[in-house]
Design goal:
By secondary structure, the protein is α/β, with parallel strands linked by helices. It has a single domain, classed as Rossmann fold (3-Layer(aba) Sandwich).
Length: 400
Amino acid sequence: MDVEHFEVRVSEDVLDDLRARLARTRWPDEVAEARWDYGTNLAYLRELVEYWQAAFDWREQEERLNRVAHLRATVDGFGLHFIHERGKGDDPLPLILTHGWPSTFFEFAKLVPLLTDPEGYGAEAADAFDVVVPSLPGYGFSDRPRERGLSRRIPGLWVRLMEGLGYPRFAAHGVDVGSSVSNLLGFHYPERLIGIHVTYPAEPYVGPGAPELSQDERRFLAGRPGGQEEEGAYTHIQRTKPQTLAYALNDSPAGLAAWIVEKFRAWSDCDGDVEKRFSKDELLTNLTIYWATETIGSSFLVYRDWALGAESNPHAWEDREEVPRGVASKPLAPYERIGVPSAVALFPADPPSGMPREWAERSYSDLRRFGRMARGGHFPAMEEPELLAEDIRSFFRPLR
């Protein structure tokens, strides 16, 4: 596997064009007292766009991003961008971190040093990790897929990337889409996985022959439809008509900001104030990565690929005979469970937070940790990096 050093660098032409487009934003109307009830608030978006155009310093953010080791490699013919930071200490544990949507590799910027240099942050040196943070296919500086179904190859790409870096066995952590990738790694490649740590458990089988649901499980399932009605529109369009949405968001940075920032507010533990959890610079660094790489449309493909693969050709998930399950709404088959040592961390502002332990136990035969975090939401590595780092360290400590 050929690995090349990579530097995050956006041309001045791209930045000039971005500022010009922001200046020409054609703003819509808004009903009186709408706040965020109808979607992204007009007053806040105007404020954010003005800052993006006039005050945001991308060059400063580039300098920060380039303080860690960025690389690119071609894996099975596909170009992957990734961060590879070696841990300090005698025997760091290899760990791959997989981000979700609508974030990027930048989601883990605060978490990486806590895992690679725990002693420097008041923890034990023996808990150090060698950390690999790939950009998902179609996200950031990884290649954009040009074929149907490539997203379903992600677990295999991760295995071959880690093997190429000298890690025949490794640990995995994931959030959102990254949880699904980590679950699939544990399901398909148990011999390669030391363990998996996720914020979204795999979906269990609950059909004929499954153990009867407990009262807590029934309450949990009863609350799902309402949450999906309020927050699920993005999933439906990204799973069904991603190309239609891509035209608008790839052409309008204000539109891109509206689509993404609304989720950072709705899904984080911010009490309605998005900047309680994320600075403008953090929000705009993530947005500028999408904008400069023109990857908002390709970031939707994982939703479409997984929906089509699960429905029309379940064997297309991997070039293996096993049928991958536990992704999106597709449950594990009867008697199927993920067998590697597993941990689930639930954050209070994230949708799975009300899940009872017995629901997760249906999906994992070796569930060793089931934690309810005190704070945080859908972006725990950005919101509560210390809490997340300690949970990851604690889970993997006995597996070293």
